């Protein structure tokens, strides 16, 4: 059986030390994962406690009772396995387009890591099959919509779990097929669920967290790109650098504000395009002068989100939870509110990078503000130049403002009002990633406009060494406009490159 993984390193899942870097390596197929021996010991102990309770005839939610509002309905001991299978089938009601493969893989890794903590009562062979699916590249098809983000991400995780029993749909080696066929082609064998296992697989926040883990890495890359785009625009418009003075900024000691300004000072070092206060003008507009304050505030939010995701990646989000002393307690560890609020923070942070970027785009293309050729056209009038590129940026920014409305303030009761407050965290996570991608397109447009402004002024040789390298990188994807041409595909290509690579 061929496994993914080009590295000799194995990421050990122990439920406590998983990092975003580990997830990225597994998601990209650069390494495989396995449980640590200590984790297996905890899993086996947790399972034995569940079996002891069942043998003693104890009533345990979701083990020998119904779910949600049906928790008071007892289930016969002979049907506890069927109960778990029915749970997966009933909860697999996701709709919409399938989640991207990288998010699906992240979800699988996160769920395996949560189960590795040993509080869920799953059987070792069921958990091993989940790990085998990750390592062999067998990916369940998971629709992107349908989770309330409380009682766990039930619908998305049910679609994931159906694969393990040989049901649902999956993708293997680029081909979509039934779950049963995908397992067979990979040389894997489906499991038959026993008590508690279905609930252990689907009660958790791994869909919202999986989306969040991918989105936060893209957002961090976007933040560096926003800082670099601002530098190119400053040089294009001969901006004033006194606003980024370290002693000035130290009077308002937000760490992220100074970090942004430090990057700008470093990247603009050696530029012959920047100006001093009073040389051409006394002050720049806010979209240039306040870059550290605005970008820095977004970086503050990103830091908060990254911290909450790191905690959630190594958390137990199951219900009920099997404690080492033998107690099986029902609680609310599955509730997605901590991640819902974090994702809403990320939405606003990324939207603001785009908002201020669009204002810089306007300054570049508007001849009354830039003193440059209208819309950066070579032959204005005959050509429109980048006029409508600014329209596209404005449309994206406006769409982001709608998406940035916090999902976490909404709640719709479910399960006959038993589950009467939900987080909508998965909606917030999906919206956050959409905003990040929209913002990347806006930043790409700013870089294209700044590149064109530099081209029209023939100012390449006067740029700072670092920004000149960035300009060359941008132009390898989007050459200067010598006349009008369609650049839609180039904007998209540049935006994806900005999300995938970190500018240093």
From TrEMBL:
Location of this chain's protein in the cell: Cytoplasm
GO molecular function, a single term: histidine ammonia-lyase activity
Pathway where it operates: Amino-acid degradation; L-histidine degradation into L-glutamate; N-formimidoyl-L-glutamate from L-histidine: step 1/3
Cross-link (5-imidazolinone (Ala-Gly)): 150-152
A GO cellular-component term linked to this record: cytoplasm
PTMs per UniProt: Contains an active site 4-methylidene-imidazol-5-one (MIO), which is formed autocatalytically by cyclization and dehydration of residues Ala-Ser-Gly.
Main subcellular location: cytoplasm
Reaction(s) the record says it catalyses: L-histidine = trans-urocanate + NH4(+)
One Pfam match: Lyase_aromatic
Family from the record: Belongs to the PAL/histidase family.
Record-given protein name: Histidine ammonia-lyase
Gene of this entry: hutH
């Amino acid at each position: 059986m061929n496994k993914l993984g080009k590295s000799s390193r194995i990421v050990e899942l122990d439920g406590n030390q998983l990092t975003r870097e580990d997830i990225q390596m597994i998601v990209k197929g650069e390494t495989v994962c396995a449980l640590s021996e200590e984790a297996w010991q905890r899993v086996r102990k947790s399972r034995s406690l569940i079996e002891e309770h069942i043998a003693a005839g104890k009533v345990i939610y979701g083990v020998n009772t119904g779910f949600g509002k049906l928790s008071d309905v007892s289930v016969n001991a002979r049907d506890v396995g069927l109960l778990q299978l029915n749970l997966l089938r009933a909860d697999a009601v996701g709709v919409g387009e399938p989640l991207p493969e990288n998010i699906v893989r992240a979800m699988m890794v996160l769920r395996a890591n949560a189960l590795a903590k040993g509080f869920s009562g799953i059987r070792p062979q069921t958990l091993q099959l989940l790990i085998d699916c990750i390592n062999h590249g067998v990916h369940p098809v998971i629709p992107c919509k349908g989770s309330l983000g409380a009682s766990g991400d039930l619908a998305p995780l049910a679609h994931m779990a159906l694969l393990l029993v040989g049901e649902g749909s999956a993708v293997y080696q680029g081909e979509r097929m039934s779950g049963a066929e995908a397992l067979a082609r990979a040389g894997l064998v489906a499991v038959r669920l026993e008590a508690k296992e279905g609930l252990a697989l689907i009660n958790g926040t791994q869909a919202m967290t999986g989306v969040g883990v991918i989105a936060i890495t893209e957002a961090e890359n976007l933040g560096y790109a926003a800082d670099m785009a601002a530098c190119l625009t400053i040089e294009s418009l001969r901006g004033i650098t006194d606003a980024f003075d370290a002693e000035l900024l130290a009077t308002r000691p937000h760490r992220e504000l100074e970090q942004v300004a430090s990057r700008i000072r470093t990247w603009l070092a050696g530029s012959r395009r920047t100006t001093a206060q009073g040389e051409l003008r006394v002050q720049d507009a806010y979209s240039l002068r306040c870059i550290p304050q605005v970008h820095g505030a977004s970086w503050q939010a990103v830091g908060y989100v990254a911290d909450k995701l790191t905690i959630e990646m190594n958390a137990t989000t199951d219900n009920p939870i099997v404690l080492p002393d033998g107690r099986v307690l029902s609680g609310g560890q599955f509730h997605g509110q901590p991640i819902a609020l974090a994702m809403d923070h990320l939405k606003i942070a990324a939207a603001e990078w785009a908002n201020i970027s669009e204002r810089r785009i306007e300054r570049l293309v508007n001849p009354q503000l830039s003193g440059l050729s209208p819309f950066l056209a070579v032959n204005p009038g005959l050509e429109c130049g980048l006029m409508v590129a600014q329209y596209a940026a404005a449309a994206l920014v406006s769409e982001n403002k709608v998406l940035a409305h916090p999902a976490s303030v909404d709640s719709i009761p479910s399960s006959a009002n038993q589950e009467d407050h939900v987080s909508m965290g998965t909606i917030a996570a999906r919206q956050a990633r959409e905003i990040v991608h929209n913002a990347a397109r806006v930043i790409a447009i700013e870089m294209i406009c700044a590149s064109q402004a530099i081209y029209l002024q023939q100012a390449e040789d006067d740029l700072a060494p670092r920004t000149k390298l960035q300009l060359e990188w941008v132009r390898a994807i989007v050459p200067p406009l010598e006349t009008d041409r369609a650049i839609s595909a180039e904007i998209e290509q540049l935006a994806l490159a900005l999300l995938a690579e970190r500018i240093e």
